[in-house]
Amino acid sequence: MRVGVLGAGQLARMLALAGHPLGMRFAFLDPASESCAAALGEHYCGDYGDTALLDRFAAAVDVVTYEFENVPVACVEYLARRRPVWPPAGALHTAQDRLHEKTLFRELGIATPPFQAVNSLEELKQAVAGIGLPAVLKTRRLGYDGKGQAVLRQPEDIDAAWHRIGGVPLILEGFVAFQREVSIIAVRGRDGEIRCYPLAENIHRNGILHLSRSCVGDSMQEQAESYIKLLLEQLDYVGVLALELFQDGARLIANEIAPRVHNSGHWTIEGAETSQFENHLRAVCGLPLGSTAALGHAAMLNFIGTLPPREAVLAMDDVHLHYYDKEERPGRKVGHATVRATAADALETRLQRLLDVTGLR
Amino acid sequence: MRVGVLGAGQLARMLALAGHPLGMRFAFLDPASESCAAALGEHYCGDYGDTALLDRFAAAVDVVTYEFENVPVACVEYLARRRPVWPPAGALHTAQDRLHEKTLFRELGIATPPFQAVNSLEELKQAVAGIGLPAVLKTRRLGYDGKGQAVLRQPEDIDAAWHRIGGVPLILEGFVAFQREVSIIAVRGRDGEIRCYPLAENIHRNGILHLSRSCVGDSMQEQAESYIKLLLEQLDYVGVLALELFQDGARLIANEIAPRVHNSGHWTIEGAETSQFENHLRAVCGLPLGSTAALGHAAMLNFIGTLPPREAVLAMDDVHLHYYDKEERPGRKVGHATVRATAADALETRLQRLLDVTGLR
Questions:
Q1: pLDDT tens figures, A88-104
Q2: CATH number of the domain at B114-174, out of 3.30.1490.20, 3.40.50.150, 3.20.10.10, 3.40.50.300?
Q3: ipTM associated with this complex
Q4: Closest partner residue to B17 among A20, A41, A273, by Cβ?
């Protein structure tokens, strides 16, 4: 089975590491000349709109998937006329636009913050009047890792936020004073079977994921599963889907979906029976899904911008290091480490030591 | 860190899969034009005696290791003048000759069957007179998977055995009526630190490993560890070493060593905190060793000659599939699967189901 992946970053890389043992071979399409997945497959270097390249790429693979949600829908639709592409283009279309995404949540009865489309300063003022403050103004498209967002706390912030990110389609969302951020990752096979991983609790820093802890037996698991199952069915989804949620009291409020393997699921490589990467590949290749059961407790720490000293991290027992073979650069995800333990308190001790060793407390 | 591996078979492939997450890159030197590790690094295709190729290979890597013990010692010595090579050439020299190997066991006080070098039919007859029957006649060099061996049960077998494998240096060994075959795998770092994995119990079929079970808390663990530590120290070893043993009553009798990662340690990928592949790389690259603790109980089943139906195996929970991307051919190791469970009896149930599903009972 030859798998084509749009994008050749660390997610594509971890997909390939999971897929080779299953007998898969990989091709990556990515405009970047240096791609960290390229060591694990063939790299088709060029633009997502280059149809001659897309033809060659399609001819070289049996199935196509993608590692990021901002791949042009036109590219996916072009490829889908030549090879099966999973997740489906409709999921991509929804995930690429916060308005579509939030509208889908609302249609399915999934709790979401109040929201309103904003295309002018006038509309922004009207939206603030309706939703109230604080609120968050976001670009509808191409936002990630906190980019393209502005928090409005008082009426004076409106003009500044408009001038900072206005001029493109926006969405204003009510601010959720959440107790914690969680995400659920689930996988749906071609035959419709769904399996959900335990929730992860996520801590962000400067808008970028810093730390995820697996939450085995969490009281919110059932609610999160009911949400993501609605989404998977509605989108006729195949592959791994991530849903980010805010917890407010006993209620989960949907923030966004990612139609792909997700950073908050990296702990599943060591912390679950079958990793999100392997299960995504099993799904898109039409193979039976693997168990999503947790192996003890796990936590994942992201390395942003710089890598910690390898020796010091490897000297700790039960720490699993993942370098992405990317150049260090501020704000860039260059690696992660996962700690695992049988008991939750032992995990916490290990995690605190890892935070000390890496200087990331 | 760029790691050069002599050989590009499944062991090299699994080394690369373990090493990429640690930020390593791989180059493989192998005369075979189709090599199953080549998808995971650069393939230097050519003879082990081609010094121009060896020069280019050495220039492309920071450290060299090997995946099989029959790599020519001259090649390793040539490379060792250019780059660090681990395990050391002395270990290779010992492991390539059963007489050297058994002599080392004897020198270190490690129990081994009675043995004697045999270079003629006359010497064979003398050796049989001294050692008694049954006995096993083996070529001293280049034997693997039961090849180059003849069992002598009665005096009439002597001539036939001599005619079948004679003409090269041989060794006659006393036959061990063992209760079981076990192996111990250990790793030694550049700083001399040693870590041992739990014993594996091995079942062979037609001279080829069929099944390995991890034996956590085995009563023979201490004896096996004492043997392998003597060997690691004596050889000033760096990397993973495997020692195959026969158990006769409460005594372990050394059969042979393999100066490399070993088939009976494949269960460590999912069944131990750090796999034998990662620990071998950590050792040869001078990094701290990882924990060799077991994660529950594990068993590994080899696929020889043909692969089982992928869907049926993947449909079982807690089965981990490893295809080597090799063409199916009689007697060839083309893949394996590992089952894991928290409790020993649950493991046995899963293993029996795997044997049924694969038709390998």
A1: 999 999 999 999 999 99
A2: 3.30.1490.20
A3: 0.94
A4: A20
